[in-house]
Amino acid sequence: MQRKSLLVLLAAASAVILAACGGGGGGSAASAPVDQAGVQRAADLVQGASVRPSDLNVTEPIGKPVPPGKVVDFVSCPAADCNVIAGMLKVHTDKLGWTLNVLTTDGSPGSQQQAFAQIVRDRADGAIYIGIDRGVYERYLPELQANGTWMVSVCSTNPQGNGIDFAICTPDQQRETGRLMAASVISHSGGRANAVYVNVPAFDNLSKLQDEFLASMKELCPACPTASQDVPITALGNGVPQLVVGYLRAHPDVDYVVLAIDSLASGLPAALKAAGLDHVEIVGQGGGDTTWQYIKTGEQLASVPWPYVETYLAGLDSIVRHVTGVQAAPSQLPRFWIVTKNNVAETDLKVDGITPVVIGADAKFAQLWGASS
Q: What's this model's pTM, rounded to 2 decimal places?
């Protein structure tokens, strides 16, 4: 699993241990003055984001035939969700008459370096990789550039340029997710929330998301006590539900748990109910079938789904434009979307096993390329 930021794109971890290095929850917000203007701004943000976007940021058709026979290498990972992403990409490279090579790694720098060495040997026309720092593959950049390989970095902290031809899911592009998570908490609580944000600091691509959440809570609900709790990467997979319950028992005024990744909620609703803490609301980001089921049953309040389909197809679009001699579109994500019980039924529409944010995103990209949908 890629160390830097893979969990932004994959809902793959099933449990975590909460590290006792974050701030603790403060007193109850119930008796503090409510910033009604802030609550209204939060409610407006939620209302606006509750309408599912219908348009891509990329709108300019290629305008000329896309050459067939190109090769794209995708650096995958051990997580099952990587296979889903690989499957989605293959559907679309097949439409273009291209070959997709899936290079699986175990998440270690050594295996990732082997994947980039393979990209060099393949003389790939384009490469897409998730959350891998350029320091891992920098030694191969001269050969990759000599081969004309178009490099697409997804969810890393490295900026576009200096060998990275297209970067998407950057830290700055994730900021709005944090603001919408805060708005959801504030709006639902009427400005009387006491929240803890569960973070994964090892995935530094998530840092801007946490920063934006904390800043938005302070801006829109200054009287709402808000803490953060760090999860060490070494603790992934070791029983988060019981440990979250332990945190909440130690901080009984906390009534909102906000998760940096939705997969941290796996098993949490049942544990909260067993502990008599099912009044605590859960808000997350990322999405996935488990999350949608929790929202349908009222066990999770809201989620800001990550635009997996749009992110990876935008990366593929940049390769298509490169090999066709058309300037790549600017790196942008679609407008974000909040899923609640009111609109969760819309998540049943899938694209190759993944819920898109933009309705018909796959067909829209295929249309831009002049490929069959």
A: 0.86
Most confident of 197-201, 240-244, 287-291: 287-291
* Per-domain residue ranges of the chain: 6-53+173-305, 71-170+308-330+359-369
Q: Does 370 have pLDDT greater than 90?
A: yes
Tokens of 269: 């609703």
- Distance between CA 304 and CA 357 in Å, rounded? 10
Please give the span between the terminal C-alpha atoms of the chain, in angstroms, as a whole number: 32
Q: Any idea which architecture 6-53+173-305 has in CATH?
A: 3-Layer(aba) Sandwich (3.40)
Same fold, 6-53+173-305 and 71-170+308-330+359-369: yes
- Domain 71-170+308-330+359-369 adopts which CATH fold? Rossmann fold (3.40.50)
* Whether the predicted pLDDT of 28 surpasses 60: no
pLDDT of residue 264: 81
Read off the tokens for 230: 């760090």
Burial of 16 (0-12, 13-18, 19+ CB in 10 A): buried
Predicted confidence (pLDDT) at residue 23 exceeds the cutoff of 60: no
The torsion of the CA quartet 231, 234, 237, 240, rounded to 10 degrees, works out to -30
